[in-house]
């Protein structure tokens, strides 16, 4: 039963995708299968989280080959929190895409590809094997390629070509790093690698070099400072249902892999990695937020904010105390929910107004006051105003920074928060508050059908806002869970024992 | 032979990066393919080369006789080749589509998604 529980986040989307492919011609059937798969996935990942929370790290060996030889699947608190967040936003995206995505794209395999993408996300979070991590990343990347290019409009093709090229390079670096690790240590199982790097090895510098390969590979995927330029160029091009999932989830999976590897395996040369991470985190935050401040498009502002928020997650890894890592974990969970939700809100606005350009928008507050409240909550969460969820993540990170006297990075992060508020206020002013620009009054006529569609579009936004409010207002259980997750991450004995001593 | 391979890998890596940095689509495709080849070859060589000894255990043996080639890098390589092939095929089709709808072979023409929209 426990083995099945770890497998379910992989099996449910796989079988859902297969069933959807069988009903290729019937979009309605695909929608039903998709929703069912999402509901099952949500239940399964909640069960997995409770199980891991009660019983500690859970492992299973695929094909029953014992640990260092077979492929291990490992569910610790961090990975099961990632899986659950991915299934929450998966559910929201599915609810949104029924009305929010055009029929042509829905008939061309949107549902199966999104399910396989979710399988890739779960796999990357649950695997305990370095090469397997690469394979899962390829699974989710190729789904992303297809989703970004799906529909084939000009901006999409242009975004896709940038995305595909840079991610192909990143995968090459990742594979090279895996090769170096295998060449030095002769193993790919993460737990065994963790044991091997902690025993005296002949070439400690080579392990650091392998770590740098991973830093570059996952740095590209997570959009860290000098490697992020592909993100604002491609994330806003596909329709919002697609870009919301990709924008919410994908960079954080890269961040997950970085945190996992640099707490478990590449811990030998921290005199180098910690200052490096600190500098990268600072620049990622600052450049991302300034990039956002200069944009005039709803989606592009949000895209640049992804970069800036990645900096906070990296900051936790740079401080490397239990509280800081817990802050990172909490921040990742919070950010996936909030970012997806902001993208969905921009989608709802654009569904009504047909544009994302701030200049052409306005007066949404009068037309959709409820949506405005939902935006208000999400935007303040992103900026980190108490009692919303972003505050707790930033609070933990800042406190951890003060505890080890890293004042500069904490000050930078707080200043970046202020500029984040500036960007959010800009969106609020331009989209919701200011008067609507002069348009044809006939555009404002709302039919009963459009009203019904609108209500359906609000549903996923409301769904996500409930979770955001939950982890913000009732933060204690989530924060203590994040602290437990950080304990598991930093105390690698737990991980090693769970995988190897079975 | 073993001395040639590292140099070959180095040449492949540098040639592929050089081609990727070009503006022409066709050179981009060539660069991507060479880059995939270089990483695959690297993965193959770093598992150490053993000639003429496959890791097959004989019928009345418990373990394979030394020296045998490490089968793990070969298995990884096989997976990596298949994945790389898939992605390269996708990239080629994508570039063809881009060429058809933009009518250009110059990557520098593809800068609209980076631009900040004009204020009206």
TrEMBL record, chain A:
Pfam families: Proton_antipo_M. Its main location: membrane. InterPro entries: CPA3_Na-H_Antiporter_D, NADH_UbQ_OxRdtase, ND/Mrp_TM. It is a multi-pass membrane protein. Keywords: Cell membrane, Membrane, Transmembrane, Transmembrane helix. The chain crosses the membrane at residues 6-24, 31-50, 70-96, 108-127, 133-152, 164-185, 205-230, 242-266, 272-292, 304-325, 331-350, 370-392, 404-424, 456-475. Residues 128-420 form the NADH:quinone oxidoreductase/Mrp antiporter transmembrane domain. GO terms for biological process: ATP synthesis coupled electron transport. GO terms for cellular component: plasma membrane. It comes from the Bacteria. It is found in: Cell membrane; Membrane. One of its GO terms (molecular function) is NADH dehydrogenase (ubiquinone) activity. Belongs to the CPA3 antiporters (TC 2.A.63) subunit D family. This is Multisubunit sodium/proton antiporter, MrpD subunit.
Automatic annotation (TrEMBL), chain B:
Its main location: membrane. The chain crosses the membrane at residues 6-21, 28-46, 75-95. Keywords: Cell membrane, Membrane, Transmembrane, Transmembrane helix. GO terms for cellular component: plasma membrane. This is Multisubunit sodium/proton antiporter, MrpC subunit. Belongs to the CPA3 antiporters (TC 2.A.63) subunit C family. The lineage of its organism: Bacteria, Pseudomonadati, Bacteroidota, Cytophagia, Cytophagales. InterPro entries: CPA3_antiporter_subunitC, NUOK/Mnh_C1-like. It is a multi-pass membrane protein. PANTHER family: ANTIPORTER SUBUNIT MNHC2-RELATED (PTHR34583:SF2). It is found in: Cell membrane.
């Amino acid at each position: 039963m426990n083995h099945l529980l770890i497998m379910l986040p992989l099996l449910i989307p796989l079988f859902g995708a297969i069933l959807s492919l069988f009903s290729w011609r019937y979009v309605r059937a695909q929608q039903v299968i998709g929703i069912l798969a999402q509901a099952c996935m949500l239940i399964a990942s909640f069960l997995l989280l409770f199980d891991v929370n009660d019983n500690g790290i859970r492992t299973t060996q695929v094909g029953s080959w014992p640990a260092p030889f077979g492929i291990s699947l490992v569910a610790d608190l961090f990975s099961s929190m990632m899986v659950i967040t991915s299934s929450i936003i998966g559910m929201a995206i599915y609810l949104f895409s029924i009305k929010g995505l055009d029929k042509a794209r829905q008939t061309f395999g949107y549902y199966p590809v999104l399910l396989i993408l979710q399988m890739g996300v779960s796999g990357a979070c649950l695997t305990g094997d370095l090469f397997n991590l690469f394979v899962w990343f390829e699974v989710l990347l190729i789904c992303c390629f297809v989703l970004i290019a799906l529909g084939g409009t000009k901006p999409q093709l242009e975004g896709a070509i940038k995305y595909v090229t840079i991610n192909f390079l990143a995968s090459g670096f990742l594979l090279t790093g895996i090769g170096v690790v295998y060449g030095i240590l002769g193993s790919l199982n993460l737990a065994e690698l963790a044991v091997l790097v902690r025993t005296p090895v002949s070439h400690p510098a080579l392990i650091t070099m392998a770590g740098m390969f991973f830093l570059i590979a996952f740095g590209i995927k997570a959009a860290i400072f000098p490697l992020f330029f592909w993100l604002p160029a491609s994330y806003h091009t596909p329709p919002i249902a697609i870009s919301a999932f990709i924008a919410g989830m994908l960079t954080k999976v890269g961040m997950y892999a970085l945190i996992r590897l640099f707490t478990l395996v590449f811990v030998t040369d921290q005199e180098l990695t910690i200052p490096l991470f600190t500098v990268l985190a600072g620049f990622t935050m600052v450049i991302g937020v300034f990039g956002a401040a200069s944009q005039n498009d709803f989606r592009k502002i949000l895209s640049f904010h992804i970069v800036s928020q990645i900096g906070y997650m990296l900051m936790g890894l740079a401080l490397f105390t239990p509280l800081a890592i817990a802050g990172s974990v909490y921040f990742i969970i919070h950010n996936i929910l909030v970012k997806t939700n902001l993208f969905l809100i921009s989608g709802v606005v654009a569904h009504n107004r047909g544009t994302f350009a701030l200049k052409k928008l306005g007066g949404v507050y009068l037309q959709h006051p409820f949506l405005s409240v939902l935006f208000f909550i999400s935007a303040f969460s992103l900026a980190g105003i108490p009692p919303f969820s972003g505050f707790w993540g930033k609070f933990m990170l800042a406190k951890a920074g003060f505890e080890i006297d890293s004042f500069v990075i904490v000050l930078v992060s707080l200043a970046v928060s202020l500029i984040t508020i500036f960007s959010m206020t800009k969106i609020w002013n331009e989209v919701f508050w200011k008067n609507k620009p002069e348009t044809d009054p006939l555009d404002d006529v709302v039919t009963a059908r459009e009203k019904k569609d609108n209500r359906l579009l609000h549903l996923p936004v409301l769904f996500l806002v409930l979770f955001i409010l939950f982890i913000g207002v009732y933060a204690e259980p989530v924060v203590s869970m994040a602290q437990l997750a950080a304990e598991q991450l930093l105390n690698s004995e737990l991980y090693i024992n769970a995988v190897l001593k079975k | 032979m073993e001395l040639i391979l590292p140099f070959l890998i180095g040449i492949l890596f540098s040639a592929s990066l050089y081609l990727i940095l070009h503006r022409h689509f066709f050179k981009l495709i060539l660069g991507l393919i060479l880059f995939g080849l270089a990483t695959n070859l690297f993965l193959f060589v770093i598992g150490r080369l053993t000639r003429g000894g496959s890791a097959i255990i004989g019928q009345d043996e418990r373990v394979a006789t030394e020296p045998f080639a490490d089968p793990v890098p070969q298995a990884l390589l096989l997976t990596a080749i298949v994945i790389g092939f898939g992605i390269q095929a996708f990239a080629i089709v994508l570039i063809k589509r881009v060429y058809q709808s933009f009518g250009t072979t110059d990557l520098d023409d593809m800068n609209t998604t980076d631009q900040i929209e004009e204020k009206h």
